[in-house]
Fold this sequence. Notes:
The complex is a heterodimer. By secondary structure, chain A is an alpha+beta fold. Chain A has helices spanning 4-17, 73-89, 113-116, 120-136, 196-209, 227-241, 244-248, 308-312, 346-351, 404-409, and strands at residues 22-38, 41-59, 62-68, 140-156, 161-176, 181-188, 220-225, 269-271, 293-297, 300-301, 337-339, 355-369, 374-387, 390-394, 398-403, 411-414, 419-422, 429-432, 435-445.
Amino acid sequence: MLGESRLAEIAQRVLREAKADQTEVMVSGNDSHLTRFAVNTIHQNVSETDVTVRVRSILGRKTGVASGNELALDTLHRLVRSAETAAGFQEENPESGSLPGPAPAQKVDAYIERTADYAPAERAHGVEKILKMSRKNGLDAAGAFSTEALETYIANSRGVSAYHRGTVASIVTVIMGRDSSGYASAASIDVDDLDPEAMGRIAVEKALSSKNPTPIEPGEYTVILEEAAVGDMLFFLGWMGLGALSVQEGRSFMNDKFGQRITGENVTIWDDGSDPRGLPLPFDFEGVPKQRVTLIENGVAKNVVYDTFTAGREKGKASTGHSLPAPNTAGPIPLNLFMAPGTASKEEMLASTKRGIWVTRFHYTNILHPVQTILTGMTRDGTYLIENGKIVRPLRNLRFTQSILEAFSNIESLGKDLVLLKDEWNSLGTCAPAAKIRNFRFTGTTD
Amino acid sequence: MRDYTHRALNQAQAKGATYADIRIVRRETQTLEVKNGVVQTLSLGDTYGFGIRVVADGAWGFASSHRLESGEIDRVASLAVAIAKASALSKSADVDLGPAERHEDTYKTPMKIDPFEVSLEKKIDYLLRADKEARSVKGVRVVEGTLGFERNHKVFASTEGSYIEQTLTESGAGIVVMAVSEGEMQQRSYPNSFGRHQGTGGYEFIETWDLPGNARRVAEEAVALLSAPQCPSGVTSIILDGPQLGLQVHESCGHPIELDRVFGTEAAYAGTSFLTPEKYRNFRYGSDIVNIVSDAVTPGGLGTYGYDDEGVPAQTTDIVKNGQFVGYLTSRETASQLRKIRPEAPARSNAAMRADGWNRIPIIRMNNVSLMPGPWTLDDLIADTDDGIYMITNKSWSIDDKRLNFQFGTELAYEIKKGKLGRIVKNATYTGMTPKFWAGCDAICNKDHWHVWGTPNCGKGQPGQVAHTGHGAAPARFRDVQVGVMKG
């Protein structure tokens, strides 16, 4: 990690070199380490140090972008010229507006020294605790233990200057038997919050209890979805229609629904980039402070998130601080989603279920119809039949084909715990509770 | 460059590595996106760095950095060895790489027109013309056109004496048209979904696919889908077009033959495989007419290269022969592992190890995994089908962690009645179990319909890696398939 002053120095050098009407620069760095294990052994163990400089140049109503990861002065000079050259080749975009001006972002303390300095041998020792439990029970453990330090500095020629640094630690494990498997995951900014032993215990217990699964007829069932499965649905909901561009293009499930009930009353969803329960990033990729935006409140469609471009298209709107690296064709997206918890424990949900299916998590979820919010995917790593308030037997994995809004209209109860779920592909997190849902639709099964 | 590679390999060995390799990679990218008549993205990317992979104390270590400097090379080589020694704390056996690989060579993607030399104006004009054609169709709401170019310059050197330089160039193009009505959104993509179709080669690839000449047609199809009836539900025959069949091969054959998945090393994220070692050369994967080949040598394929990222020469491997499962995609280490339990398996890797840039460790990735053509023409195949659905261009995909239960959706579909294409239907889906599905394959179109379709978005690994893979396919027919899973 280069630190705030070095990143600021790089950014200011870029801005001094710039000749465009307006210029934005993003400098981001990472030190990332990951220990991966499978078949009860560490098989991949990797480390990466990188920095990326991204320049957006605006000439009138034309925009060009160039990025690189070399910091020599002549390379930075070439980078600025490349962005300006690209802008020069553009056609005028009549809707192109100004870069945002400065606004103070809330500082969020999300950097833990211990996480940043965690050594390969410490990760290996943590992994070994999981492997020992797996071996002892005649199972095979797989997973990854990662620690990462990240920093981002965004500045523009209108005076924006924003810096954030943070750490992320996460463990994911899948422990497998001959015909069974169990799963556990945890993430935090502080590596000492993670308890590999507890995670190993959960995954081992599931791998043992899901042995000899039997099939069940597909159909509509009451389900108890653990937090990872609910988080999966929440993530897709954000991408499918909680950004302003999808509404402006008429392809969001929120279109013509603002102020109307779209889910059950017990559903409230918001985005908050500063909440330390998630993985905070207090400003967006234009350096605009992230606002807490209520998206669905007590089942009623309330708001979507904006960036500078989409806000400029609507009278009276301002960016809510949800830009992706601009310009992009996806538009603004809520990247720090929260779903309000309920009051039930998972044990209470189970006890109140006459007949249903317990789902640990989903696998390979994908969108079938974005306006109808229909997803398909498989269950994985612990699927069980519930009868008369008890888990009675493990099931073969099932395929679901289900509208999220329909499922969120059928929520009987929500878990009292909010769990942070780190995305596999980046350092963003969704916070979701468990949920008990009626009439959840399964359309297939597997061996 | 050899000074750097020597330094890295020497430092790694001095710190205790028994094997080491270094890859120095520069990746240049150029992306142009036009949306609704406006150039939204004109982005130039350049990333440069190196990754050092070592075996020490019988275990793997990998470290990488963006600073190619002597001191940093020493630090990263030492870190890679320290990481390997930490890995050794939980090893069950020493890494066995099998026979040594020593090659000195260079490879460059063959091409006619260097895409990085073509002016940006020409590229923008191409996209704007396609965009205009698509938006001339009433009812179209969003049009997105993309051109993407990528060049990877790679140097590979190993302590076994290899030194290989490769320059791989890719070109890609695509257009997506969305039509919207109340509560409904339908889209059509050309030539393929995932934003673009891509191959190795130069700008001639872009010209071949002629986005402006096809944009109006796909726009009309998107609008027609808005008022089309829902795909019926039931068990019937389906004909898949080349791009959809390419993805079917990718998901239900390409992934389960990755030997790292088979041995469980991708279990936590991507999953495992139903094609376990006892099935090797002993399992009927599909009907007699199903022949699937893995290769990294077909000109223009997105999975075409000279050497993989372990320095093993590109080659061709039979995967499914006359319906029988006969081959895996392998690395040096997994080839050795397989041979210990199946001595008839080849001793050497078939060159399927690739890394997503300098900062990722190589893992087994598909190259071009292709279904070989049969004797049919598409017209004859449709005429031979009494009742069924013809499904075109992927829209949705999902498959279980062993690669058995799958469900796909396509953008466009036509009913087939008495040997003729009938009405358009929307939201077409089909689902099945892999071996049963391939057992139902009873007709494959000929080489005139066969093309290597590019999949530029294949995710695998932790940390995540995106691979570019190719899949040769011609339209084919499958019997007794469940279609229409989505409620109307």
